[in-house]
Structures are given as C-alpha cells and as structure tokens.
Task: inverse folding
C-alpha cells in the first residue's frame, strides 16, 4: 500500500456502457437458478408519471426521487413487488408476507443503472426492508457472481429478461463511516485498517473497480471482546471494465484517503503484506472449492465483450508489469485477464 503523497485523483470520465445479457450468460444463470420469471419488470417501473425529491434529515438532496404512479397501475405494481420480495426471502411463498405493504418506490437519478429502490414495511411492527430493481447489465452480473463465489459474503439476486433484482446489502455507507464513525473511540482502529487492506486485495484480485467510499458499506458486528468490521461492495457496475490498474485498487481513490492514512499509520509494511497474503489465500481456497461454477462463469466471461478493446489492452499491459508476468500479454478479453489473475493466486497456495 503506497504513501498518500503518491495519490492521484482517479477519474472515471464517461458513464459505463450497459452490456446486454447474451445467450451464454443467460444459460449460466438458468443453470444456477438465477434466472426466474418475475411479475413486474424494470420497464414497468419506468412508467411513473411524476416524482418527488427525497432529502435527508439535514435537507440535503439524496439524488433519489419517490416515483408516483397512476392509481390504475398502482395495485398491480405493488402486488408484483410484494411477490418479488417473497421470491427473494422465502422462495416465492407469499403466504408469510400477506402483512407487508410497499411504502415507497424510489428512483435514482445518479449512476449507471438508474435503479429503483423498493421499501417494504411490516404492518405488525413497522419494521422495513429494501430491495432493488435495475437494468440487467452483464458487467454487473459478472460482478455479483464473482462476489458470491470469491468474497466472504453471499449475494442474493435474480435476473428476468432485462430486469435485475437485488437484495439490500445492509451496512453503513463508506463515506458516512469515514465522516461519523472512523474516530469512534470505542472502535479498534487496527481492525478497521486490517479490513481495508483485505478489501483492497479482494477488489484487485477479481478486478472490481470504482470502489469509492459511497460504493461500499461497513458491516459492523459485535464480538465477545471488540467489534469486528467487514467492508462489502454494493456497486458492481465497474466489474472488469476499466483499463487503468489503479482503478481496481480502492487505496488510490481520494475518497478513501482517510482509511489509507489510518492503515499506513497503524500497520507496518510487513503486517500489510501478511494481511494481503491471508486474503489471497482465502480467495484462492474459495475459488478451488467452487471450481466448477467459477470455471463455467469465467469461460462465459472470456467469450463476452464487457469492455472496449483499448481498455483490455491497457489493463493486460499494466498487470503484466505489476505481476512481472508476461502471460497477461496474451489475454484478449477481460474474462481472460480475470482468469489469469485467479490462476496466479491459486498457484500461490
């Protein structure tokens, strides 16, 4: 992990292209029970006829809008959304969710996928939950699958034609954690630094880009002595898309500078290397235990086009230099680059 004085602002200048789900990826999703027929689609939700800006408790614009629908369509949409929530939570058994209602359907004007966020409320106790509906983007689906297979966390999502449904990933958004929780005197800062090193390594190995502080969350779990931290990505649009190596390393984003400075202050270079090695070993073991599924996924990804050719060329050159390994120079797709990165990792075991 490099010294903050070497930072450069990482800029992603253009909105990423939405890549369609091809027949081979669709077949993979069907085989792994990710493809399912849904009663309401992303396109259906786009038919709102008005919206109201949503502001936070301080009156700041959240970049989300509450979508408003015609009364003639509202009941059908709400019933379909409750069915989708049942599919996510209970495999489609709607009998246990008769006491739920849809309180709000929010539309995001920011980002690549322009998602809808659905708020589901329990009528008995006012407890609520969220899930998301987005355009089905192949890049994001590859990112979700790699996260499910290689990370410590499981991912719950489904695809239906051109619609992607995702379960809410709970946690404190990274930018909020840095602003309001990082200096909490009750938190062990070494544990925070350790997790940031591991998260940085996870993103780089599987080539998940654009992990600025608002694209991940902190999952905080009380332990018998102290609190444990887990950083979880929540945005997978930039899976294997960019050509610049540093865009796959969260440490290079200025939004994460406070975490990098904390890490360099508390951890020695030897300790950082230890935690990187620990994480690489865990990822390698997960890849071996899910060998069939991971191989199938990367085979599909290898034959898919999910980034411009010039970015593939740039990334293979930069990774060949990073690893001092010319095998990257033979890669002709982003999927092949991911395969090579994982191969190097498993050879270390």
Result:
């Amino acid at each position: 992990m490099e010294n903050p004085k070497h930072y450069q602002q990482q800029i992603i200048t253009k909105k990423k292209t939405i890549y369609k789900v091809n027949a081979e990826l669709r077949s993979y999703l069907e085989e792994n029970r990710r493809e399912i027929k849904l009663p309401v689609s992303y396109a259906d939700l786009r038919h709102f006829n008005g919206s109201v800006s949503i502001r936070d408790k301080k009156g700041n614009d959240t970049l989300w809008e509450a979508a408003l629908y015609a009364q003639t369509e509202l009941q059908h949409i709400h019933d379909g959304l409750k069915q989708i929530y049942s599919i996510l939570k209970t495999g489609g058994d709607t009998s246990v969710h008769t006491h739920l209602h849809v309180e709000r359907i929010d539309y995001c004007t920011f980002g690549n996928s322009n998602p809808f966020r659905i708020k589901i409320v329990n009528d008995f106790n006012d407890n609520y939950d969220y899930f998301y509906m987005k355009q089905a983007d192949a890049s994001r689906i590859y990112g979700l699958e790699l996260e499910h297979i290689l990370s410590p966390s499981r991912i719950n999502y489904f695809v239906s034609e051109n619609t992607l449904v995702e379960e809410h990933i709970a946690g404190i958004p990274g930018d909020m954690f840095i602003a309001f929780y990082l200096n909490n005197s009750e938190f062990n800062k070494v544990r925070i630094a350790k997790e940031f090193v591991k998260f940085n390594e996870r993103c780089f190995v599987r080539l998940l880009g654009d992990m600025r502080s608002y694209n991940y969350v902190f999952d905080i779990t009380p332990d018998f002595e102290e609190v444990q931290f887990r950083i979880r990505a929540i945005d997978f649009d930039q899976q294997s898309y960019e050509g610049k190596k540093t865009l796959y390393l969260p440490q290079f984003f200025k939004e994460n500078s406070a975490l990098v400075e904390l890490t360099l202050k508390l951890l020695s270079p030897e300790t950082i290397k230890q935690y990187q090695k620990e994480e690489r070993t865990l990822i390698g073991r997960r890849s071996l235990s899910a060998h069939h599924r991971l191989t199938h996924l990367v085979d599909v990804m290898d034959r898919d086009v999910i980034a411009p050719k010039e970015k593939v060329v740039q990334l293979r050159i930069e990774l060949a230099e990073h690893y001092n390994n010319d095998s990257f120079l033979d890669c002709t797709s982003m999927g092949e680059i991911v395969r090579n990165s994982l191969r190097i990792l498993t050879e270390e075991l």
